[in-house]
Structures are given as structure tokens and as C-alpha cells.
Amino acid sequence: MINLIAGTLYMRTLAASTFKRIENKCMEFTFTLGDKEKTEVQLRRNQFTGMFTYRVNGELKTLRSPADASTHFPTENIAYYRFAVGETETFDIRVIHTWPERFPAFKRQKYDILVNGDLVKTVISY
Question: How many CB atoms lie within 10 A of CB 43?
């Protein structure tokens, strides 16, 4: 009986550490735009679900949903995302996401982040 309880506790601890490792496999990048009007933009993509979201000053928006079939069965190994942020100062943000052809969920992927057509950052992450 004691072994069963200890085994259960071990499994719970293992599951929590596994979950923590999965959370660290997300691409996350935050930057601030604007001189007069400060706009904070946070990009986040979950490697396992394929969900790609962004936050603008705390408001969450979805770029790619796990409910969309093209998230899990893409026809190409490149995806383009585009959105605008800001009210008085507007910025056109584009993300070019590329990934390897075989087993992309287990390999690092490339995210080119462009603001108003200028490359601001290249992120290599899951």
C-alpha cells in the first residue's frame, strides 16, 4: 500500500515536471512600439497545439487556432501572418514562420518579425 502511494506521488511529480518542459517549448517574444503611444506586443506560439496568438496591450488575439485543420496539416512549410496595432501611431506587423519538412513539432523553427516592412528580429525557437 505504501509503495502504491509513493508511486502515485512520483507519477504526479513526473507529470508536473513534464508539463513544465512542454510549457518551455513555446515561442514567446515581446516588444514595444511607438514614440507617442506605447504599444506592447507579445507573440506566442505553442509547439504542440500549433496555436499562435498575440497580445496588444494585454488584449489577446488569435493568429492560428488548433481547431483549424491547416494548423496540423499544412500544405507548405511556410506561413505568413499579418496584423496592425496602434491607434494614433499604427504599425503593420508581419510574421514569416518557416519550419523543417520532417517532424517539425520536434525541431526549432524560424520566425522573422517585420514592422512596417523592416526586419526587426529573427527568432529561432519551437
Answer: 22
